[in-house]
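Why do we care about 3D structure at all? Because function follows from shape, and shape follows, mostly, from sequence. That is the central idea of this module. The next example makes it concrete: a single protein chain, its amino acid sequence, and then its structure expressed as tokens.
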Amino acid sequence: MDTGEYLVVMDCGVGCHYRLSDRGLSTEVDYVFITHGHMDHFLGLPEALFQAYVEGRKKPLRIFAPPPVEEVAKILASHFVAEVAAAPYEISLHRVSPASSWICRGLGWRPPRSATTRPRRRTASG
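And the structure:
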């Protein structure tokens, strides 16, 4: 998604790096938002990180993800940096709640409600 100011990837499934690379965008993405922890929404992240490195990415990348995905992304980012010996570009990870609205420098997005993001109902006791 191109906001005119930022280039945003919503979810990063397997093969995402091919689509970004084919369009010359691997080094240009500013934000990656992972909507929830299903593997088809984040399993392409390691490939996308590495492809951006191969293509000479220098600018920082901000990744926003729910807790389980954030933990996986931290492991991937640290392994990626160790593999290439030095951090070729900054990767910052931000934990978000899957059912919340996400606002990032004026870029707002509210994930759709589904069985995995539906908030709990309040009862009379709490």
